[in-house]
Design brief:
The protein is α+β, with helices and mostly antiparallel strands. It has twelve helices and twelve strands. The strands form three sheets. A five-stranded antiparallel beta sheet has the order 4-3-7-6-5, with helices on both faces. A five-stranded antiparallel beta sheet has the order 9-8-12-11-10, sandwiched between helices. The chain has a two-stranded parallel ribbon with strand order 1-2. It is elongated. The N and C termini lie far apart (111 Å).
Length: 365
């Protein structure tokens, strides 16, 4: 009935054979009774040793279990590509680890202050589907572990759900499913809450100091991973938007890097390819002289230097030949400052041939 309890076989009628059989069946230690009271001091020492050894073994097993769980979750965080994959991996691994029974990551609706389960794993998923908890002040959920974790941004624990009055409203469905204790970890990164991690265990008092430290550490790791994925997704969104606008812009766009006194073309859009008669690959990493020859390149570099010296946009207009036709384009070169230094220029170019010809016709008339 109590396999974790140390058991000493203390008998007056024993032998090596009996001792061997007792130990093989799970006895912790064997001691044959002797005459005299000194045997009780020996027995007491054996009891202390047995208890100390069992506790040491359990601590070692717990630490090994915790290290394994932390390692598995961190490996999953590294491999996961999306927020959904992160949350699923975390819940699945926690739910599979003793003494935990189920795990859930939930959000909080900022308007209604209602707990909204997002992802869960374990045999008791129906509990989260039925959960109705509001953590606003004055509501029962405010003092429950989820409410305290949300408002205090600290791990909150209910060590015995059956005896915890703060959890009375949700006690029956939890007890029916064998959920006996609960820890809720805020997934907070630099003031941004990415959710609440709720972990249920199948026994009371499951969350001692070691368990709480481990869950707090995991909460930090999970929040950092969720923050990284959120940041990456936002950067990808901005990159996609920039690429779309850049490529579909009606004007030519050209990025020029200025380093150690040299101007080099780094990127241009399709409209710029049409206006320059060169594709992006031909322009990339070239200087103006390399791209357009010494004469034209020197004039272009002079415009760029003028822009840098002024520290403000510079307009220009020029004739160019493309497809055997002489056309006119106008442009604006603007400085871009990064890291306190002006090391980039952006050129916006338009084909103004038709407008130029209309002005000439009007002037002639």
């Amino acid at each position: 009935e109590w396999p974790r309890l140390p058991f000493l076989f203390f008998t007056g009628r024993g032998s090596e054979e009996i001792a061997s059989e007792a130990l093989s069946k799970g006895a912790t230690d064997y001691l044959q009774k002797q005459s005299g009271t000194e045997q009780y001091e020996l027995l007491a020492n054996r009891i202390r040793n047995a208890v100390d050894q069992r506790r040491a073994d359990e601590r070692a097993a717990k630490l090994d279990r915790i290290r394994t769980l932390v390692r598995e979750i961190n490996q999953a965080l590294v491999r996961a590509a999306t927020t959904e994959e992160i949350e699923a991996a975390v819940c699945e691994r926690i739910a599979d680890a003793e003494p935990y029974r189920t795990a859930c990551i939930a959000g909080v609706d900022e308007t209604t202050m209602r707990i909204e389960p997002r992802t869960w794993a374990g045999a008791d998923g129906s509990y989260f589907e039925e959960l109705d908890m509001v953590v606003a002040p004055g509501e029962p959920g405010y003092e429950a572990p989820a409410g305290r974790a949300y408002h205090d941004r600290e791990l909150a624990v209910s060590q015995d759900i059956d005896e915890d009055d703060r959890y009375e409203k949700w006690r029956s469905p939890a007890s029916e499913r064998g959920l006996r204790s609960l820890a809720v970890v805020p997934l907070d990164h630099d003031g941004t809450l990415y959710g609440l991690l709720a972990v249920f265990a199948d026994r009371p008092d499951a969350f001692d100091e070691t368990e709480r430290e481990m869950l707090t550490e995991l909460g930090d790791d999970i929040a950092h991973a969720l923050h990284a994925r959120s940041t990456r997704a936002e950067l990808q969104r901005l990159t996609d938007e920039f690429r779309t606008v850049f490529e579909q812009a009606p004007n030519g766009l050209l990025f020029i890097e200025h380093a150690e006194g040299t101007f080099r073309y780094r990127r241009c859009n399709r409209r710029m390819e049409e206006l320059s008669g060169m594709d992006a690959a031909e322009l990339r990493d070239r200087t103006p002289r390399e791209a357009f020859g010494d004469s034209d390149g020197a004039q272009i570099e002079a415009i760029y230097r003028d822009c840098l010296e002024r520290g403000e946009p510079v307009d220009y207009a020029e004739e160019f030949e493309i497809g055997g036709e002489t056309r006119v384009r106008s442009g604006t070169v603007a400085p871009v400052t990064t890291g306190g230094e002006t090391d980039w220029l952006v050129t916006v170019v338009s084909d103004v041939t038709d407008a130029h010809r209309r002005r000439e016709q009007l002037a002639f008339q």
